[in-house]
Every structure is written in structure tokens, then in C-alpha cells.
Amino acid sequence: MIAGSMVALVTPMDAQGRLDWDSLSKLVDFHLQEGTNAIVAVGTTGESATLDVSEHIEVIRRVVAQVAGRIPVIAGTGANSTREAVELTTNAKTAGADACLLVTPYYNKPTQEGLFQHFSHIANAVDIPQILYNVPGRTACDMLPETVARLSAVKNIIGIKEATGNLQRAKDILASVSSDFLVYSGDDATAVELMLLGGKGNISVTRQRCTAPHERSVRSGHAWLCRDGAGDSRKSSCRS
Questions:
Q1: DSSP character for 80?
Q2: What is the pLDDT of residues 71-87, one digit of tens each?
Q3: Please, are residues 48 and 105 in contact by the beta-carbon 8 Å criterion?
Q4: Which of 55, 68, 93, 230 has the fewest Cβ atoms within 10 Å of its own Cβ atom?
Q5: 215 pLDDT exceeds 70?
Q6: Pairing status of strand 182-185 against strand 157-162
Q7: 1 confidence band (pLDDT: 50, 70, 90)
Q8: pLDDT tens string 29-69
């Protein structure tokens, strides 16, 4: 299971806007040394909306190669276009990523049924673990708990990064999915609280630098959860 204190890795660029491969390599080494539990490459923080497809795929390829199986690598492969998302997800699988993170289509404002069709098509097209990503503050698209519950039954969809910061929303999702569906916080300010409800970790921006404090806070939430399932709305056993 992919869980714990995870980083939404930045994608470094130089003053001319070119990808800075040396700095990227140093960042990956830093997180390997600091005990980060997983790396998300080319998520929102990693410039997913600004890289072209070839750059996007190359960042994923390099991060996976450098990590070399020591910790999980989650590749950001979401896109407005279902076809492009399938292409990115296919390339991430070929590169050796452990899972993919798929943000809701932005700007388009799809319906809930449209979201279901989009994500289920990708999941059926590419056989790799896939994590949904709901961040309506950036996308202007909010995937509701009922849609998450429907998608949780689709093969290859293993979890969601819930970044609304709304703990009631997290409770509603946790109450509507099975105990093996992974719910991660995408909001640093409410990450520990979400874990106390039954979440499995935090995909964090602040972990870029605050590695030790972030890991302690995530571990404290996990330890509290392990006490007879305290705070877990599903009363599931604690697994790591």
C-alpha cells in the first residue's frame, strides 16, 4: 500500500524556462535521504499544466529511473483530454511508475457523469493503479462523494487525493467507499485531521523542505489512528 508522508515534487526550471535536470536529480536524492514515503512527479506542483507532453513524460521517466524502486513513484497523468490522459498514463506505466494521479478535467466543467466516464475510460484503457485527484479550488470542477463511490468500484482505481480541505467531505467519502480504497489528504492544513478520520497519508507541498516536521505530523496521525481504529469512520484495521 502506498501511504504516509509523500511529496508533490516541484519540477525545477532555469531562468530561460528550460527543465533543470541537475536540480531535479538533487531534489529526488534529497527526498530519498530524508525518508519521504513516496514521490509524486508532475502533479500540480510539478508544472503538469505547463509542460508539453514530451517534457511531462521525460520528467516521469527520469524520476522513476533515479528512484529505482526504493520508494513508490506516482506519476501525474491527468489531462483535460481523455485521450491525452490515456497517452500520459500509458507512458507512465511504460516508464515504470507505481501508480498514476489523475486530476479532474479543468476549465471544461464536466458533469458528474462526464467525470465517471472520463476516469473509468482511462482505468479500463491502462492497467496501472490510479488515484483520483479532486482540487476544485484550482480546476473549477468538484467531484462529489457519490461519483467517487461509483469510481471506487472500477478496476485499477485505488484511491483519491482529496484537496478540498473540507473534513466533512472526507467523512462522506470514507463512509461511501470500502476500507481498501485509499483516501489521501491534498491539503496540508487538514492532513492530520483527515488521517484521524481514516485517511492513509498526505501528498504534500510543504514537504519540499519541511521533511522531518511533516513526517512526524503524519506519523502522529497514523499512530493515533492505530489505537483501536480511533477516529476511523469505517472502523477499519490499521495497515501499513
A1: S
A2: 999 999 999 999 999 99
A3: no
A4: 68
A5: no
A6: parallel
A7: confident
A8: 999 999 999 999 999 999 999 999 999 999 999 999 999 99
pLDDT of residue 133 exceeding 50 = yes
How far apart are the C-alpha atoms of 171 and 57, rounded to whole Å?
35
The residues facing 75 across adjacent strands are 41, 100
Question: Domain residues of the chain, as ranges?
Answer: 4-225
CA 109-203-155 angle, to 5 degrees, is 65
**Given 161, 171, 200, 235, which residue is catalytic?**
161
Confidence of residue 230 (pLDDT cuts 50, 70, 90): very low
**146 grid coordinates:** 457519490
133, 171, 184, 235: the active-site residue: 133
Kindly provide the residue ranges of all beta strands, DSSP E only, lying in the chain, ordered along the sequence. Answer: 4-8, 38-41, 73-76, 99-103, 130-134, 157-162, 182-185, 201-204
161 is known as an active-site residue: yes
Q: In residues, how long is the chain?
A: 240
pLDDT of residue 207: 74
Alpha-helical regions (H) of 35-166: 53-67, 82-95, 112-125, 136-139, 145-152
Fold adopted by 4-225: TIM Barrel (3.20.20)
Residue 159's contacts (CB-CB under 8 Å, 6 or more residues apart) are 131, 132, 181, 182, 183, 184, 200
